[in-house]
Amino acid sequence: MDRDFLGDRKGLLHAIELLGRDHEAVDSIALPIMLPEKGFGPHATLEYLAAGILGGAARLGAATSFAHMDPPTPWITWATTLWNAALNQNLLHPATAPVARMVEQRVMEWLAPAFGMTGGHMTPGSTLANLTALWAARECAHIEEVVASEEAHLSIRKAAHILGLRFRGLPADRHGKLVGESLPHDLTRAALVLTAGTTGAGAIDPLDLAGRAAWTHVDAAWAGPLRLSSYADRLTGIDRADSVSVSAHKWLFQPKESALIRMALT
Ligand SMILES: Cc1ncc(COP(=O)(O)O)c(C=O)c1O
After folding, report:
1. Distance (Å, rounded) from C-alpha 159 to C-alpha 125?
2. Ligand 1 pocket, 125 CB below 6 A?
3. Residue 81: is it exposed, middle or buried by C-beta count within 10 angstroms (0-12/13-18/19+)?
4. Which residue stretches of 27-125 are H helix?
5. CB 224 within 8 A of CB 235
6. Fewest beta carbons less than 10 Å away: which of 185, 215, 240, 258?
7. Quick count: other Cβ atoms within 10 Å of Cβ 139?
């Protein structure tokens, strides 16, 4: 087998050493304009990229990053991400990820009860979790329309478009929460999407509206992990949703791209 696929202990240790160095902050990286005909080899490539990639990255653990929803990541996730990169497991198929799939299911069993759910799976981000949820709503509850606050994440509108569903935007109040009184009376053909933690302001829509439509999806990409904290009651009502998405790469402090979609299996 090509040596590049076997792992190079010296190279990997050097990569860790480069990560730990203080790199001067830079705001660009000099990449060749044209695709090079020949690669530099892994060692030289690491050296070449380090100054720009490591020096040019936003420091999400710095106090100046506090308002961003993307968090810093604990070192254990750097190590497990390295394992994942080396093993490239595909959770879709038992032959390509025999044990990783079991781990996925067990993690779901741990987390699902906090959301009143019975099952679910991992996705590469809440954009896809939201799409999956609305696809399930279309297939299982035969919805024709998606109703959400104008403050809902763009992925909701996009998912509606991809799935051939109408999107109806409802007003939000000055705090960014859906105005409950604006809800249409007839939601028998609609999926109602409530956001727990809007992208712009972190607002939580009135979750007591869950259950008022043929399908309720809660986009808890940001605030979902509150359910595992002493602030769990901020999301009271989420357990009445039919589906919930949570981005693990936000308040679960995992690296991108990790998220969960949970479904109330009926
Ligand atoms: C409320 C909300 N929903 C969904 C998403 C999309 O999540 P992801 O980045 O995991 O695809 C975001 C991302 O910022 C978000 O803020």
Report:
1. 13
2. yes
3. middle
4. 42-55, 75-87, 98-111
5. yes
6. 185
7. 10
Note whether 166 and 160 are within 8 A (CB): yes
Q: Which CATH architecture has domain 95-263?
A: 3-Layer(aba) Sandwich (3.40)
pLDDT tens track for 158-186: 999 999 999 999 999 999 999 999 999 99
Distance in Å, CA 218 to ligand 1 centroid: 12
What's the predicted TM-score (pTM) here?
0.93
Q: What residues contact 106, with CB distance under 8 A and at least 6 apart?
A: none
Q: Is there a cis peptide before residue 257, judged by omega within 30 degrees of 0?
A: yes
Task: State the average pLDDT for the chain.
Answer: 93
- Give residue limits of the domains in the chain: 3-81, 95-263
Which ligand 1 atom sits closest to the C-alpha of 128? 11
Task: Give the pLDDT of residue 67.
Answer: 82
Instruction: State how far the Cα of 206 lies from the Cα of 101, in Å rounded to an integer.
Output: 35
Rounded to 5 degrees, φ, ψ at 111 are -90, -30
Rounded CA-CA distance 3/129 in Å is: 37
70-125 tens-digit pLDDT: 999 999 999 999 999 999 999 888 999 999 999 999 999 999 999 999 889 999 89
Closest Cα to atom 7, ligand 1: which residue?
Answer: 126
Q: Higher-confidence residue: 200 or 3? A: 200
